Amino acid sequence: MKVFITGATGGLGRAFSIECAKRGFDLFLTDLNQYKLNTLKKGLQSQFPLVEIEVCASDLTNEEDVKRLLKFADTKQMKFDMLLNVAGVDFEGAFLDWDSSHILKIVQLNIEATLRITHEILNRRKDQEKFYLVFVASLASLYPMPLKATYAASKRFLYDFSIALGEELKTKQVSVLSLCPGGLPTTEEAIRGIQVQGFWGEMTTNRLESVAAMTISKVLQGKKIYIPGATNKIFSVLGKFIPNTLIAKLLYNRWSRAQSHWLSIKPQF
Amino acid sequence: MKTIIVTGATSGIGFAVCKSLLQAQYRVIGIGHTFDHCEKAKTLLRTEIPDQEVEFFYGDLMQQREVHRIADQLSEHIEKTSDSCLFGLIHNVGCVRSWYSTTEDGYEQQFALNHLAGFLLTHRLLKYLKNESGRILLTSSQSHQWMKIHWSDIMFQKGYHPLLAYKQSKLCNLLFAYALNTRYPSREIQAFCIDPGLFRTDIGNKKTGKLVSFVWNLRKAGGVLPEIPAETYRFLCDQKKNPDGLYYKNCRKMPFSRQVNRQNAEQLFALSEQFCNIQFGV
Question: Which of A87, A104, A185, B199 could form an SS bridge with A6, CB 3.0 to 4.6 Å?
């Protein structure tokens, strides 16, 4: 089994890399920073000496750079069994608080780059074998989210896209899963984000290690959507019965409170 | 003048240990997480105890590349100021995490910081320690009791429990000290672990969730000030002859878990060498 992981050096990417290595899958990892990739490769190699690991840095929003990445894979004649689209970005805050280049970056990476990679890697899947495809959407993909408007909409794109693509590729032995996690305690900033949300922050937070393990298990079983955590599942069901405009209103109240609180506290170490 | 390095030196026990050692006329090198914390600690120490040599270096010891970077700086500094001699290395830095999270190397954070960082730093500074029959002190804890090393899943990737991960990392400290003492004669180096007991520190409030933080607040309310456990560190450094125990509390030898034995110590040592890509040699 050979797995391609984007955004591999981030918190979720690392958790997926470890989970796959643990299962004995060979890895091809990419992210922006070659140095960080090498560090991760070394650490994984010491933990899992039998796993084959290749790394190559690439800016997935840059078409030329992606070509270089794919050439690297092609010269090594890599064919894949699984693709985990982890790379994604969000700039926390209101639409007008950021200049348009930042806002567009969210779309360029979360949508455009993800589609580019997905297309290219699907064309590099092994002949006559099953292929497993994972999109990291988000709990945010289930609702319109003020203050995370672009991010949530970009994840909504992936969510809908993955369900539709899964249907298209059913006969081609490709199984497509959309992962919709709540908060993940991956970085100091993410942990702060969970802290400022208080009770509901902790309730919607998912355990990184179990999300990684369950995602791989679910996509191997052919599941299509994975919403980790009981609270999140309940929220996702509730979301279906409440009008979008009302949800947006409720979420705006909650997030603007959390955010003003966030800005008022200093980072603690 | 003898030089001693203290990690996690900007707050809690580490800061109290620095203060106590400076008062006892040691030259102290502190290591902290950020530039700001180090500057603040340095200024405080220099005002409280003037005319003593104290220097600080900062970095994120959880990441192995940072341990190497700091070790490079420390080596240069020790060669320049201390004649390539290091008398003490106090691994005090530690963390608590509510959730499973990894370092850039893909190692679980508590394991990486509480154990591997000290392991790697000791390796890097070993020759300076040997030059002065150095002592290595590790901040362990009574919570190492009733715990076994999870050999099949040492990073708790299958299911994380903050307390178990913490307990295991403190057991690792004892096993590492034990292994050092069986590998090296005491005229070269000698390692000790210290149980600071319950004292007021914020370790359980840093980057943890509400629940862990809440439980920690209840716990620390009954604790003593960090100056009390700091005495044990100074006691172990002050003894002319190497004390013969492994595990100390309140300047007294304490019994430790039966899990601390040769087989576990060697197994952990080999595994840690593998995780750090190093060989200790003899």
Answer: A87
CA distance B197 to chain A (A): 23
Number of A to B CB contacts under 8 A, please give it: 84
> Is B101 close to A269, i.e. CB distance below 8 A?
no
Residue A117: which of A163, A152, A73, A160 has the closest Cα?
A73
CA-nearest residue of chain A to B64?
A: A39
Structure tokens at A156: 């909504």
In order, the DSSP letters of A3-24 are: EEESSTTSHHHHHHHHHHHHTT
pLDDT, one tens digit per residue, over A114-161 is 999 999 999 999 999 999 999 999 998 999 999 899 999 999 999 999
3-state secondary structure of A259: helix
Of B193 and B97, more confident: B193
B contacts of A15 (beta carbons < 8 Å): 100, 102
CA geometry: angle A17, A20, A21, nearest 5 deg: 80
Domain segments of chain B as ranges: 3-276
A196: closest CA of chain B, how far (Å):
10
Report CB contact under 8 Å: B207, A205: no
Greater pLDDT, B219 or A98: A98
- Which one, of B174, B173, B172, B234, lies nearest residue B28 by Cα? B234
A188 touches chain B (CB under 8 A): yes
Q: Residue B10's closest chain A neighbor by CA?
A: A269
Residue-range domains of chain A with CATH:
2-264 (3.40.50.720)
Chain B contact probe: residue of A12, A46, A48 with most B CBs at under 10 A: A46
Query: How much is the mean pLDDT over chain B?
Result: 94
DSSP string, A40-98: HHHHHHHH-TTS-EEE----TT-HHHHHHHHHHHHHTT--BSEEEE-------S-GGGS
Mean pLDDT value of segment A60-64 = 97
| Superfamily name and number for B3-276 | NAD(P)-binding Rossmann-like Domain (3.40.50.720)
- A195 touching B (Cβ < 8 Å): yes
| ipTM computed for the complex | 0.89
SS3 category, A192: helix
Residue A212 main-chain phi, psi, to 5 deg: -60, -45
The C-alpha angle A141, A143, A149, rounded to 5 degrees, equals: 75
Asked if the Cβ–Cβ distance from B206 to A269 is below 8 Å, we say yes
Q: Do B158 and A17 touch (CB under 8 A)?
A: no
Gap between the Cα atoms of B227 and B16, Å rounded: 5
